[in-house]
Design goal:
The complex is a heterodimer. By secondary structure, chain A is mainly alpha-helical. Chain A is built from 20 helices and 2 strands. In chain A, strand 1 and strand 2 form a beta hairpin. The two termini of chain A are 21 Å apart. The model of chain A has no long low-confidence stretch (mean pLDDT 90). Chain B is mainly α. Chain B has a single domain, classed as Orthogonal Bundle (Helix Hairpins). Chain B has 5 helices and no strands. Classes of the chains: A mainly alpha, B mainly alpha. Chains A and B meet through helix 5 and helix 6 of A and helix 2, helix 3, helix 4 and helix 5 of B.
Chain lengths: 498, 133
């Protein structure tokens, strides 16, 4: 066994250690420790990714001294470290970009808690990526919920507290339903590890026994994770959660936390339930319909939003809708599109939040569209990164957002009755995206002749704008060089779905 | 009539599950529909209790004893399934931390707004709504 194969475990245990040590440190050292953790996590994930890609292997790693049916396992192939790498990069960029603002938003004596929560969010995301055990998945879902709720509520404002309570209630209903799904699955199969579950569920389904129980269990697990990641009818917590947190938290929550749940859901669909049984259970079609509804409703709500960050948050509902639509389509080609969508959204949304907060800073701290008039001239760098993000969300070629839309459209053909709803939803959603994102982009670039904020000129600070620029660079890279990622995704899927 | 009787007997034989479902529904309704934040936390705990009862009853096998080896008896036939118990313990730890977090949020909300009524809180929110952050 190669030494690199220990790295998934190292990245999990390192973040736990950092969280514990940060508890005894002051804010300054806790910050340095977290930045060290995120950087080293990027290095670790890159090593695992290159190891698995070069050798084209996926492996299960035994945790503790008990072997398969009783013990706990983590598993890594190509997709797991790839998404872990994405999460670590986006988290690092979000905290770097929002650090300055966070120091104003959070009471000085509590800042080291903020860094502890970033460490805990990191550990739970790594565990959600790598775990091979469904109950461990549940535990880390809860840790992720607690960490993200703390990241949200640590801001000293009443609205963010209320947003945190609302988020928490939705998240707890979600994890409760997921846990019941896990218990049902355990009751009928007696297994908790993914490979054994896959085998047992396959046998049960083939024998025709417990089909109803399995369908209910699948439904509960999917609904639980869908509530937590903000699928359409359960998206009410999203606008306040993303719109009211401090920018670093908004970036982490919208960019990576919801994607962590979705990645776990993809793992459950493909490695626990099996795509054939998932299709036969009928839950897949529901995901498609709710995904399409989310794409439309999210965009319509964004058009009527009165604050900039609320608008960006509502657009997340639409983007999550794309992901669920892709999962509802159920083909391998659609899954590649889903992965691209996760990538493009995770890279774009934190950038949009960071630049939106800087634009509002350049408009006297106000977020209404009237005050934002000409904000791009007052803070040109933030204006540019916001424009890149907006164009990517709309789906203009050369930006990352174009690739998933193209792949969704091409994979829609040959799906029977699903083809037309998917194509129509893509078209309508794109038009709606144009309506609010391009409107905002044009608004921030129209110079303001006379007004309250016309005299403001913000001198961009390198530390604050650099992460957003970096994310914009990644965005363009994904948009221009998608062939490499497509290879990684297809090879990863061969290992993932075997 | 016979079908109904079998149905009732089944319900009676699986009374743990029935109680679990009732507890879960009570907790779920309180969590979603109660206006008081403290009651919501209580509802959450009742909901979790229902889930844990369901999980714990999965591992119990009638006539067998606790899985602690006494007098050198190691045969699997003598003991109940310990895994659900382990899962319940983990679940309880998770549930306690979540309740603690919810209660601390509730305390901070009460200090800021002097009320625990969700409707009143949202009313205050909509009054203070505007362009300001």
């Amino acid at each position: 066994m190669s030494f690199v194969q220990n790295f998934p475990f190292f990245s999990i245990i390192l973040s736990l250690l950092c969280a514990v040590i940060s508890f005894f440190l002051g804010a300054r050292w806790a910050k340095r420790l977290t930045l060290f953790l995120l950087t080293s996590s990027i290095v670790l994930q890159s090593c695992i990714l290159s190891f698995c890609f070069r050798n084209h292997i996926s492996y299960a790693y035994m945790m503790g001294h008990y072997s398969a049916p009783w013990g706990n396992e983590i598993a890594a192939g190509i997709l797991e470290p790839l998404f872990a790498l994405l999460f670590a990069v986006v988290m690092l960029c979000s905290v770097l970009g929002g650090m300055h603002r966070m120091e104003q938003d959070v009471f000085p004596g509590k800042q080291n808690f903020y860094w502890i929560m970033v460490d805990l969010a990191h550990v739970s995301l790594m565990a959600l990526c790598y775990t091979n055990d469904i109950f461990t998945g549940y535990v880390f879902i809860e840790i992720c919920t607690i960490a993200s709720c703390a990241l949200l509520s640590i801001r000293e404002s009443g609205r963010s507290l209320l947003a945190a309570v609302r988020y928490m209630i939705f998240a707890l209903v979600g994890s409760g339903l997921f846990l019941i799904g896990v218990i049902f699955t355990y009751s009928v199969t007696g297994q908790l590890l993914f490979p054994q579950l896959y085998e047992a569920i396959g046998k049960l389904w083939a024998a025709g026994t417990y089909r109803f129980s399995m369908t209910v269990a699948i439904g509960l697990m999917v609904v639980g994770l869908a509530i937590k990641s903000g699928m359409f009818p359960f998206h009410f917590w999203m606008p306040d959660t993303y719109g009211r947190a401090t920018p670093a938290s908004s970036g982490i929550l919208s960019g990576v936390v919801s994607k962590g749940y979705i990645f776990l859901l993809i793992k459950i669909i493909y490695r626990v339930i099996g795509i054939d049984i998932f299709t036969a259970s009928g839950v897949q079609t529901l995901l498609l319909l709710f995904g399409i509804a989310g794409m439309i409703v999210g965009s319509v709500s964004a058009i009527f939003a009165k604050r900039l960050t609320t608008m960006v948050a509502f657009s997340s509902v639409a983007q999550i809708g794309y992901i669920y639509m892709g999962l509802g389509m159920g083909t391998q080609a659609a899954l590649v599109a889903v992965f691209f969508q996760i990538f493009s959204h995770a890279l774009t949304k934190p950038m949009l939040f960071l630049s939106a907060f800087q634009l509002s800073h350049a408009s006297g701290g106000r977020q209404d569209f009237h005050s934002l008039h000409g904000a791009g001239h007052r803070h040109p760098v933030a204006g540019c990164t916001f424009t890149v993000g907006a164009l990517s969300m709309v789906g203009i070629p050369i930006f990352a957002g174009f690739i998933p839309k193209l792949y969704f459209a091409t994979s829609a053909f040959g799906l029977g009755w699903k083809t037309w709803p998917v194509l129509a939803a893509l078209a309508i959603s794109t038009i709606l995206n144009v309506m609010y994102f391009l409107y905002t982009t044009i608004l921030i670039w129209i110079p303001e002749e006379e007004g309250t904020h016309a005299h403001i000129r913000v001198k961009p600070q390198a530390g604050t704008v650099f992460p957003a620029v970096l994310l914009a660079g990644f965005n363009l890279l994904v948009g221009l060089q998608s062939a490499g990622l497509t290879t990684l995704f297809t090879q990863g899927m061969d290992l993932f779905c075997q | 009539m016979t079908a109904l009787l079998t149905y009732c007997t089944n319900l009676f034989n699986n009374y743990e599950e029935v109680v679990a479902v009732i507890l879960f529904s009570i907790g779920f309704c309180i969590l979603l529909f109660s206006r008081n934040l403290i009651k919501k936390v209580v509802g959450l705990d009742i909901m979790d209790t229902g889930v844990f009862l369901l999980l714990a009853s999965r591992g119990y096998i009638e006539g067998r004893s606790v899985p602690i080896i006494v007098d050198g008896v190691t045969s699997m036939e003598n003991y109940i399934n310990p895994i659900p118990a382990g899962l319940v313990l983990t679940g309880i730890v998770v549930s306690v931390s979540v309740s603690a977090l919810m209660l601390s949020l509730t305390v901070r909300i009460y200090r800021t707004y002097r009320t625990l009524d969700v409707d009143a809180l949202y009313m205050m929110m909509s009054v203070s709504k505007g362009g300001k952050r």
